[in-house]
Amino acid sequence: MTSLTAVFQMARQRLIAPAIGNWARFYAAKPVAAAGKKKKLGKLGPIMEKKVIPVETDANKLVNYVCGSNYLKTGEDVKIKPDAEYPDWLWTLNTERIIPLDELEPDSKQYWRRLRKLALRRNNQLSKLKKF
C-alpha cells in the first residue's frame, strides 16, 4: 500500500499542485497588440481599416476600356467596341426611371413580377407591426 500511495502523491504533485498554484488563469490570455499599433474598439469590437482602392486616372484608358471589368489577377479590361457591334435592344433599355405599376401592361411578365414584389414588401411591413 505504501508504494501505491507514493505513486498517487507523486501524481498529485505533478498534476494538481501546478494547477492550484496557477488558479487565477482559467481563461484565455488577452491578445497582445502589435508594437506601436492600437486598434480602436467600437461597439462590436475592433474597427476594420478601410482599404484604399486605386482609381484609374488615365484618360485614354477610361475612353477605350471598361475599367474594373477584369476581376482576375491576369489579363486586361474589356475593350469598348463601336456602337454598330452591339445589339439594337441594348439602346432601348430603360435607364431613366422605374416605370410605375399603373403604366405597365397587365398581361406582361414584368407587371406580375412587380405586383408580387410590392405585395411581399407590404406583407413584410405588416408583419413588423404585429405585437407577438
TrEMBL record:
Subcellular location: Mitochondrion
UniProt GO MF annotations: structural constituent of ribosome
Keywords: Mitochondrion, Ribonucleoprotein, Ribosomal protein, Transit peptide
UniProt keyword Manganese present: no
Main location: mitochondrion
InterPro entries with a match to the protein in the record: Ribosomal_mL54
GO cellular component: mitochondrial large ribosomal subunit
Family assignment from sequence similarity: Belongs to the mitochondrion-specific ribosomal protein mL54 family.
Official protein name in the record: Large ribosomal subunit protein mL54
Organism: Drosophila sechellia (Fruit fly)
Gene that produces this protein: Dsec\GM15799
